[in-house]
Design a protein that fits this description.
Helix content is about 0%, strand content about 45%. With about 170 residues, the protein is mainly beta. The protein folds into two domains: about 90 residues, RimM (Elongation Factor Tu (Ef-tu), domain 3), CATH 2.40.30.60; about 70 residues, Roll (SH3 type barrels), CATH 2.30.30.240. The strands form three sheets. A six-stranded mixed β-sheet has the order 11-10-9-8-13-12, with no helix packed on it. β9 and β10 form a beta hairpin.
């Protein structure tokens, strides 16, 4: 499957001990949800399933034990690898709910149909997610606008037109 069929849900950061355990960073919320899926890494041979024997959620990190990895030397090829899940394995979202990968890359317009820019990334806060929109106007080139992903600002996400319409002043 091409890379567009997968999304990143974590990353292998480093080793943990000498018996082949690895430290990972989970991008799922809550972090343990990463283990609800069939996980893969992208190797030179394409996507390869990560067969996890065991995992532990420690106070400051998450560690995994991959089948057939017994020593710290066996872990080297996994360090800094991103962890993927197939998009088709994700649960179906309810109406007006979106996965981040469905929003990133969409064009953003204000309610007056003036193009603001492109959703470059998204980050969570305690109260809501925030769209990072890269501006497209000549005088604001490469500047970013942060737009809270809440009803007060996001008026519509159009799947048909692949755009997001926001309530945002012209002076951005």
């Amino acid at each position: 499957m091409p890379n567009k069929d997968y999304i990143v849900v974590g990353k292998i950061l480093n080793t943990h001990g000498i018996k082949g355990w690895l430290i990972i960073k989970s991008y799922t919320h809550p972090i343990e949800n990463i283990f609800e899926y069939d996980l893969s890494i992208n190797s030179s041979d394409g996507f390869q399933e990560l067969e996890i024997d065991e995992y532990r959620i420690l106070p400051k990190k998450v560690i995994i034990k991959i089948k057939s990895i017994e020593t710290i030397n066996d872990t080297e090829r996994y360090i800094n690898q991103e962890i993927f899940v197939s998009k088709q394995d994700l649960p179906v979202t309810d109406k007006n709910e979106y996965y981040w990968h469905q929003l990133i890359g969409r064009e953003v317009f204000n309610e007056n149909k003036k193009r603001i820019g492109l959703v470059k990334s998204i980050f969570p806060t305690k109260s809501n997610d925030v769209l990072v929109v890269e501006c497209s106007s000549n005088d604001k080139k490469n500047e970013e606008i942060l737009i809270p992903f809440i009803k007060d600002y996001v008026l519509q996400v159009s799947d048909k037109e692949d755009i997001i319409i926001v309530k945002w002043e012209n002076e951005f």
